[in-house]
Specification:
With 550 residues, the chain is an alpha/beta fold. It is 28% helix and 12% strand. The strands form five sheets. Strands 3-4-2-7-9-11-12 form a seven-stranded parallel sheet, with helices on both faces.
Length: 550
């Protein structure tokens, strides 16, 4: 029996060694295959380097409140119109409206948001004034008279219009439409996020107006034909055969401004729009009673470690706004010839600085996602990105003078139609949600509103639930309007939801499945390792070395 036990013990110990070897290989294989253990490339990882040395990169210097600008309420230079204003360009057939809902509205469940707001407050953003600092806003019929004149830093409007109510470029009208448009026809799917809110329009920039050098005859703006192709030309819808669900019935037409690659940049050559007037426009919006400010314009420059005088004025202006209980929202910026992507190895040392997003302590900086749910390739990354929202395949108001329709395409400089896109159109989704939060939770301060939007976003799988691509994640309007945020639990009380509210939208389970698979793989590896250790200890000889077993 002793021999048998010794022989069996030897066999067990031998197989234990083989088992341990196999198990180690198995665990290593599981670890390699587990998605949770795949190493991220350097540019996608958060850096643990110490704070910036010798300058300001990831964060700006402290606010110098003495730099708060005085609002002059007028253009800083003499600008003249040099390019024909946006027009509606027909491709033939009768004008029709786009019936389908934009994918961004579906993604954010805007229809359910509207039902929730009506059940809880009786309106969807009523009495909330949102300032749109942009290229002006045309008084489109779908605003229902809810557009106010806020001022003009470009020029005296043509046709005797009130300051801020001419949109030669077409950009500001589309931005404002995403915030507050309300088509009377129920068959039209497009709606603004806060369709009862009021728009305060301040025209601050224009790529169609340039600094005047000498007297020139005014451009020919009266034309029934499509204007020549340029970067600011109107766009056009394609026929339904090319559009999918973009239009319903017959050949369609439409208008949209051309979108330059870098977005609505400030300080670009001789065109109207500088950081000086942008800072003044922020102060003006505050003083005119805005509760939310949307800026789909920005300035992009190489990071030098310093801050310029105009940037300091803008920083002081947005700090003044938040201090006066105004939520400030800004587009994160688009990649272009003069604004390179921040894809350097150290994310805390960006090579490009974008303002006003840089002032993240006082600004909700908004990145763009596409219809896959991933960050859009044109969206500028940075340590200042707060949240993200849909920014591609945009449907909004036709900004052409006299139009009562929608637009979903733009004619680019090459004369070819393309989709409307940019972080410019992601920002107003967030501004609209901010307006709704302000309407529902009237006791919250501007900073608490901003924190609520970030806290309830769909956080990325990154340290601290934040990365440089989408910030704290894609906004979740339903959560922003219903969740109890711990820091404000004494102010944001739960409310009884309407009984007829539709069930929650079933989201794509793939990301959760992948995450659980990775976690499960790691757990299996751990259990196998514990089993092997236990087996080794159980089969370890208990006799002393050299002692003969009887």
């Amino acid at each position: 029996m002793a021999v048998a036990r010794k022989s069996r013990g030897t066999r067990v110990r031998h197989l234990g060694l083989a088992g341990r070897t196999g198990t180690v290989l198995l665990a290593a294989g599981i670890g390699v295959l587990s998605p949770a253990s795949v190493a991220l490339p350097a540019w996608a990882q958060q850096s643990s380097v110490p704070a910036d040395a010798g300058g300001y990169y990831a964060t700006p210097p402290p606010v110098d409140t003495s730099k708060k600008p005085a609002d002059e309420g007028k253009p800083d230079k003499n600008y003249e119109q040099k390019t024909q204003c946006v027009q509606r360009s027909k491709l033939g057939g009768d004008q029709v409206d786009i019936k389908n809902r934009p994918w961004g509205q579906e993604y954010l469940q805007i229809e359910k948001v509207h039902q929730l707001m009506r059940g809880a407050t009786g309106s969807v953003g009523k009495d909330i004034k949102v300032a749109v600092i942009d290229t002006g806003v045309t008084a489109h019929p779908y605003f229902g008279g809810r557009v106010e004149s806020g001022g003009d830093y470009v020029a005296t409007p043509n046709g005797g219009k009130a300051p801020g109510l001419e949109d030669c470029d077409g950009h500001g009208t589309e931005v404002a439409g995403i915030i507050a448009a309300n088509p009377p026809d129920a068959s039209i799917g497009f709606r603004g996020v806060a369709p009862d809110a009021t728009i305060l329009s301040i025209r601050q920039s224009s790529q169609n107006y340039e600094e005047a050098e000498k007297k020139e005859p005014p451009p020919n703006t009266a034309s029934n034909s499509a204007p020549p192709a340029s970067s600011n030309n109107p766009g056009s819808q394609l026929p339904p055969s090319s559009q999918g669900n973009g239009a319903v019935g017959g050949a369609a037409d439409g208008t949209a401004p051309g979108q330059d690659k870098g977005g609505r940049q400030q300080e670009q050559g001789k065109t109207a729009g500088t950081l000086k007037t942008l800072a003044q426009a922020v102060v003006r919006a505050v003083d005119k009673g805005a509760k939310v400010i949307n800026m789909s314009v920005d300035n992009c420059r190489p990071a030098t470690g310093g801050i310029t005088e105009p940037e300091q004025r803008l920083q002081a202006a947005v700090n003044y706004a938040v201090g006066r209980d105004v939520v400030v929202v800004a587009a994160a910026g688009n990649v272009g010839d003069k604004c390179l992507q921040n894809d350097q190895p150290d994310p805390k040392s960006p090579k490009m600085i974008v303002t006003p997003p840089w002032f993240a302590d006082d600004v909700l900086s908004v990145a763009a996602i596409d219809d896959t749910g991933g960050v859009a390739g044109f969206s500028v990354n940075g340590p200042w990105v707060s949240v993200a929202a849909p920014g591609t395949k945009i449907i909004s108001l036709d900004p052409a003078e006299g139009s009562s329709s929608l637009a979903n395409l733009t004619i680019e400089g090459n004369g070819e139609p393309g989709a409307i896109q940019g972080t410019s159109f992601a920002a107003p989704y967030v501004a609209g949600v901010a307006a709704l939060v302000r309407a529902k939770f009237q006791g919250l301060s501007a900073r608490e509103v901003m924190n609520r939007i970030k806290a309830t976003a769909q956080h990325p799988a990154a340290p601290g639930g934040r990365d440089n691509f989408v910030g704290f994640g894609v906004i979740d309007p339903i959560a922003a309007l219903t969740a109890i945020v711990p820091s404000e639990a004494d102010k944001a009380k739960p409310v009884q939801l309407p009984g007829d509210l539709p069930p929650a939208n079933d989201r794509d389970p793939a990301p959760m499945i992948v995450a659980l698979a990775g976690t499960g793989g790691g757990l299996v590896a751990l259990l196998v390792t514990l089993f092997v250790v236990h087996s080794v200890r159980r089969n370890r000889p208990t006799t002393s070395p050299g002692r003969k077993t009887p």
